[in-house]
Amino acid sequence: MSELLEQAVTAELIDSLRAVVGDKGILVDAGDMAPFLAEERGLFVGKALAVVKPASTAEVAEVVRLCADAGVPLVPQGGNTGLVGGNVPFEHGREIVLNTSRLNRIRAVDPVNFTMTVEAGVVLETIQHAASEAGCLFPLALGAQGSCQIGGNISSNAGGVNVLKYGNTRELVLGLEVVLPDGTIWNGMKALGKDNTGYALKHLFIGGEGTLGIITAAVLKLFPKPVEQQTALCALDDIAAVTKVLSRARALSGDAVTAFELIGRFGMEIAVKHLDGVSDPFEAPHPWYVLVEFSSSRPDSDLRGAFETFLEAAFEEGLIADAVVAESLDQGKMFWRLREGLPEAQKHEGASIKHDVAVPISRVPEFLDRATAAVEAALPGIRPCPFGHVGDGNIHYNLTQPEGMDKAEYLALWEDMNRIVHDIIVDMEGSISAEHGVGRLKVDEIVHYKQPVEIDLMRRIKQALDPKGLMNPGKVVRL
Description:
By secondary structure, this protein is α+β, with helices and mostly antiparallel strands. The chain has 17 helices and 19 strands. The strands form four sheets. Strands 12, 13, 14, 15, 16, 17, 18 and 19 form an eight-stranded antiparallel β-sheet that branches. Strands 5-6-10-8-9 form a five-stranded antiparallel β-sheet. It starts with a helix and ends in a 14-residue tail after the last helix.
């Protein structure tokens, strides 16, 4: 196609899209589009023909149909908080970003069925508040909950701090509404706990990162609202004890553990140094800490008694060296600020090479020992900052640059550090992407590590649903 003809086709498509979504539903000015074109950490900054913001499922379907007919690729986007480049366009500028922020209605809350029906653009924190007002709990919780959207959470199968008790996002979705790559709408919005009538189609789109279709709405699973929580920050002198502490917590609480988060000493130091309102609650430093939270929806559960029994047993067995129990809401919030603010604190210490990995829970200490020894041998002075969800085996193994090293020189080692860490992960039968997804960042890594039959199956599914390859191309799996 000649350049002039291509420009004419693009102009005609833009006019057609504007007719569908209205003037307030489309951005074409470079300045207006800029916030939608960059990944949060700045690793990927793309270009686009336009940013389109449909306000209904019907509008999404028509936008998709128009782009499919014109052969123009689409990049589905929610709150643009993803960390693997799956939510932004490529640099060539021939794609259209479909942002779901105007699909922001809560369609229904059913506290008897313990379900909520929402559109894809509803912010996660809004869903949490709506569930709470109905006397229920929607347990998905993560650092970006004030800006991330539920459609993106579902598309990336987000994890968060409560996976130990409630599971990943995949376990929290009963039904979906999806616009397929040709503009067809699949209505799978059943609010059923059981539906054994063939392939579970929703699971193709949960974690699919928008490569097979665009999620426009979902039926979410709710739970009884906790009426009591107990939170403590525990200090450990030996990382080998961390899984034993978790086992004791689960056994002595009647499995009431809702969060079990690891923090290393370096993480504690930079959090205290860089985060407002955070202080070290211990008199002496310790190499490791775990943030433990018990929750119960029973008013007569004696959760405090179970919490104290757990702490006493852990002390007596020499598993924990010290502990501080949150005696107020503010102190509990400070503990969580310490944990959730670690990515922010790391930014002040220079460049960071990040790994979102998982191993079997029992092997978390082994992974930390092996990986730390390997990266320190490869680059003396590197500062590992591991933290995360020990309760489900998901560790954010972030590597902060050595003090005084040039940032660009350090980031040039990204692939080398990936190979070191990921080789260990795969050797331990783990995952190189536990909750952030694949996107663009790890699309080649999974080809390197996954079995060829797995990659072939993924490509065949992609080809079957998106034969033109127009739905978020180049992300997750390449055709």
